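Bug #77: duplicate submission created two jobs. Keeping one. Sequence:
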Amino acid sequence: MRYILDYCYLLPFGIKPKRIKGADIKEELTLKESLALAKESTSDKAINKEYVRNYLVNKYKDEVIVNERGNYTSTGLPLADTHYVNKNGIRKCFIYVYETEGSTLLLGNASESLFEELKEKDKVVSKSLFPKSKDLWITIPIDSSYTIDEVNYVIDSLYGCHVGLEAKLSESEEGEKHVVHHLSEVEIHKEATVEEANELISDEVVKEATEIKYVKSAGRKKTIINIDTISDNFNDGDEVDIKVLKEKGLIQSKFGAYKVLARGVLNKKLKIVADGFSDEAIKMIILTGGEIIEIKEKK
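Kept job's structure:
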C-alpha cells in the first residue's frame, strides 16, 4: 500500500519509488488495491491467462474446469479467468487470474501455510477482502521475483489444498535442470548455448514453436549458416531472411535457400525465416524469445 501512495505522489515529478517487497504492504487489500499493485509491478516472464490455462489443462486435464474470459468488461472493469476444482465430487472456484498492464495477478483460495510461506520468502502477497468468504483468499502479483517453477508451485498449492495434494517445487529448485515440454512454459534467457538449449527445451517444443510457410519454388541451391554468425551480425529484435543475409555478405548470391545450424552462443531475440533449421538451433532461438519460420516448397 505504501508503494501505491508513494507512486501517486511522486509520479507528477517524474519519479518512481523504490520497488516494493512483501514487507512493505499491508496484510489485507481490496481487489482494486491488489490490481493497482499488479499494474505497477513488472515481470520478465510470459505468465498470463493463457499460461495458467495451459498449465492447468495439461497437468490436471478433466480434474479442473477452466473458464476463459476477456480482460475487461464492456464498461472497462477488469475481468478474470476463473478456474474450478473438479475432482472427488468437489466443484469449487479456486483461482481468479487477472492480466494487467504490469504483472499478472493471481487471486487464490489458499491455505494459511501457503500465505505464510510466501511472506517468509518476502514475496508480495496479501489477504484479499474479495470475494467475501469465510475461506482465506490471497492476492499474488506474479512479478519478476518469481521463477517459472515458483509460479507452478503456487498454482499447484492453490489446487492441492482443495483435494488433499501437497505441492512440491520441481527438481530444478534443488539445482537440477527443468526441461519444459510446452512453449508457454519457456523461461526466456538473455543468451543460449547449444548445451543449455538441449538441457532446457524438449523436442516437443521444437515442433510447437516452428511456423511453416509454403512457397512455390524449385531447384534452389541451398547453403548453411551458423546461429552464432547470425547473432554476431544482427541486433535484438531484427528479422533475418536470405535477402538481408546476402546484403550483409553472409551468404553468397548464388544460393537461393539456407539452413540454420547450432553453434556457439545466441544472445539476441530474433525472428529467423529460413529453409531449414537443426533442432538445436530452434531450441536456442526459443530460449532467447525469438521466432522460427521455416520455408517449405509447395508440392
